[in-house]
Write a structure and sequence with these properties.
This protein is α/β, with parallel strands linked by helices. It contains 21 helices and 13 strands. Helix 15 links the parallel strand 4 and strand 5.
């Protein structure tokens, strides 16, 4: 083919290609022009929107940094409002609670003591604040809602403290699901004044919010993109992240050695669970509340099931039958009195201490003539309610997770089944409690009602204890007055009863309260006692002497009553005044042994009885020992405790020489003592003891954290 013909052949193709290029260019130009027109239209729309917005909101939008500052300010206000709610009523138990870190001290201790629990409360509120803001996507609306909730909660806290002297607890959330109408009964007389003040405060804060919103061109809108998907996705993430963080904190903060627990303590959280009001004042109501939301109670035994628990019940039904074959009395045919004598112990047993005379000759004599011994206490200088709990339930703190520091606060309020030994006496009218102090300490007023006590007589009511005499300059009601209050009801009671007495006379501190005190104390270690320590010990000894005399007189009066009565008397822990002795870790066991005895009056028929294996015990075994002392028949549960006590005389969680705190129970092996008071190693237990201990954990788990399978058996029932 010639070049000319080839060229002629290609011309149509080139022309076609050129046409296509031209058309493409025209399309591009058309697209560009259309895009340009759309851009100009969009720009005009945005300019119109901006003009309209400017007409409506002539002020410039707040900058991000200003929102951040306002966020912190309103966060602080929220925490302060909550703190005011628990602090407007001063503590009614100031003897037990230092006041330097509550009220304004809640804030100032940041620079006084480098305690940043105020900041911890701010961080927790901030998480909820962020989630609320992202959910609504409006800063000002979220702030108004947050402050409204804080003021309502603060008012509720104030009302509850005024009526019950108790802070809001997780168990109170039950009102949201049932019995909501009963909440009205918590509103005290004169509440309208508090409500008006709360409304006025909120009106001021709301006015401030509205003024700031007026000057904010953004109107508080936080996520402003027009992309709906991006808007929702970013807000969802910003809601879920803080909610997840808050939930993780709540689920872990009460667990010993968890990240949340360590962080909380590092920030200055110092749990004060003997007094829920002081705890909320000292650590902030939000921190105090969250700490009790998810306590670790017990590790679930691997073989726990309904079938396993039926096997356990059957095993000890058989044991009960064997025991009862040799016993002739019924436990509830007598009145049983538990006397928890505050801080009562023998000063002569304290290592390195010499005293000039015996302060408890009467009780020493009583112990020699009846069932008696030494009680292993889990506390030193504190922890009364834990010993009390073990005595009333037969359960042991040694079986609980180390995170459960106070069953009265963390466990009992939420329990659906709370079997206690007083319930064996039948109707609540047969169970009476006496405690000449604040009824809400350790949430006793609530718990005793749950335990089945018809009356719990205290200084603050609703059942007020009759006799309230004090000795010399002591701030506490005397033991004699406590005994006298109970005696009137014991004498007049027609039915047999269970009586719980918790004294206060020998509670710390000890400040030269008694006139004509001739007690002296000195160190035998070569290092003299400090002046404060010596004063405390000498004052305490005089208090022990007064208790010794009052207790002897109490038993004399009971001996005159013509109905069977048995008394279980025990000191809950040593006073935390032995600073010299507590410095030596070798003294731990000696500083955790108190005195106890089980005594019966003449009408009982078992006066002077002494049972075997009584030299050492712990309060969880008292009810089984009492039945043995009275030659009384037992339930399968008491049969189990009887068998358990034969193998292990006393048991407690690890003990230390420091005054009982509430941060945690120390790590280490549980304390087990044999019949001679010598420590036992769990690894060396024989198979029978291991089986009993495994059964104990199953029983305790079922009652406290499990499904309550034993409730549907006869495990707790005494023989008819």
């Amino acid at each position: 083919m010639s070049d000319s013909s080839s060229t002629q052949h290609m011309l149509p193709q080139a022309a076609a290609a050129q046409g296509r290029t031209s058309r493409n260019n025209r399309n591009v130009d058309d697209g560009s022009r259309q895009s340009s027109r759309r851009f100009r239209w969009w720009r005009k729309v945005k300019q119109a929107d901006a003009a309209e917005l400017a007409a409506q909101h002539p002020h410039r939008p707040f900058a991000g940094w200003l929102y951040a500052i306002l966020f912190v300010v309103f966060d602080i206000i929220t925490v302060i409002v909550l703190e005011v709610g628990v602090s407007t009523s001063s503590s009614r138990v100031e003897l037990s609670n230092p006041t330097g870190d509550v009220g304004i001290g809640f804030v100032t201790k940041m620079w006084r003591n480098l305690n940043f629990v105020f900041v911890l409360n701010m961080l927790l509120v901030a998480l909820l604040y962020i989630a609320l803001m992202m959910l609504i996507n409006r800063f000002w609306t979220a702030t108004a809602i947050l402050l409204a909730l804080a003021i309502v909660i603060a008012a509720i806290e104030h009302f509850k403290i005024e009526i019950r002297y108790e802070a809001v607890l997780p168990a109170d959330l039950n009102f949201l699901g049932s019995n909501t109408g009963n909440m009205l009964t918590f509103i005290p007389a004169g509440a309208h004044i508090v409500i008006l003040i709360a409304l006025a405060v909120y009106a001021v804060l709301l006015t401030l919010i509205l003024v700031l919103r007026h000057f904010d061109g953004r109107r508080g809108k936080l996520i402003r993109t027009n992309n709906l998907g991006l808007n929702l996705a970013s807000r969802l993430i910003m809601v879920l992240l803080p909610v997840l963080g808050f939930a993780l904190y709540c689920s872990q903060v009460s667990t010993t050695d968890s990240w949340a627990n360590k962080f909380s303590q590092a920030m200055g959280d110092k749990p004060s669970m003997w007094d829920s009001v002081y705890d909320a004042q000292r650590n902030g109501p939000l921190v105090a509340f969250t700490r009790q939301l998810n306590p670790s109670i017990m590790t679930k035994p691997e073989n726990y099931s309904e079938e396993t628990m039926k096997e356990v019940a059957a095993r000890y039904e058989s044991e009960a039958e064997k025991i009862n074959a040799n016993r002739s009395n019924n436990l509830t045919d007598s009145t049983v009195i538990y006397v928890l004598s505050e801080s009562f112990s023998d000063p002569t047993r304290v290592p390195g201490l010499k005293v000039n005379k015996d302060s408890m000759p009467n009780i020493r004599s009583i112990k020699e003539n009846t069932t008696s011994g030494l009680m292993l206490s889990s506390g030193y200088g504190g922890g009364t309610a834990n010993l009390e709990y073990m005595g009333l339930t037969g359960l042991s703190m040694a079986n609980f997770d180390s995170s459960l520091t106070s069953p009265y606060q963390q466990l009992v309020p939420s329990q659906h089944w709370t079997p206690t030994i007083n319930q064996m006496w039948g109707a609540p009218a047969n169970s009476l409690g006496y405690h000449p102090y604040e009824s809400s300490m350790y949430s006793r007023a609530t718990n005793y009602k749950k335990f089945g006590f018809s009356h719990f007589y205290t200084l603050t009511g609703p059942d007020v204890i009759k006799y309230q005499d004090k000795i010399d300059s002591s701030p506490y009601v005397s033991d004699k007055s406590t005994y006298d209050s109970a005696l009137e009801d014991i004498r007049s009671g027609k039915a047999n009863q269970f009586i719980q007495l918790i004294t206060m006379q020998n509670h710390m501190p000890y400040h030269q309260w008694y006139a004509n005190n001739d007690y002296t104390a000195e160190s035998t270690t070569g290092t003299p006692l400090e002046e404060d320590e010596q004063t405390s010990i000498e004052t305490y000894q005089k208090g022990v002497e007064i208790t010794d005399q009052a207790t002897a007189e109490f038993l004399e009066e009971l001996d005159k009553i013509d109905k069977p009565i048995t008394v279980v008397f025990y000191g809950d822990h040593l006073p935390g005044i032995y600073e010299s002795a507590s410095k030596d870790d070798n003294n731990s066991l000696a500083l955790h042994l108190t005195d106890y005895f089980i005594w019966s009056n003449k009408a009982s028929g078992t006066q002077g009885e002494k049972i075997d294996n009584a030299d050492y015990s712990s309060p969880n075994f008292f009810v089984a020992q009492t039945a043995e002392h009275m030659n009384a028949k037992v339930s399968p549960y008491l049969a189990f405790l009887t068998e358990m006590h034969e193998k292990i005389s006393a048991m407690e969680p690890p003990v230390v020489n420091q005054i009982q705190g509430w941060e945690r129970i120390p790590e280490g092996q549980n304390i087990y003592l044999d019949a001679s008071g010598d420590p036992m190693n769990e690894d060396d237990f024989d198979e029978a003891t291991k089986q009993l201990l495994a059964d104990y954990r199953l029983i305790q788990y079922d009652i406290t954290a499990g499904e309550g399978y034993l409730k549907n058996t006869s495990f707790m029932n005494l023989p008819q």
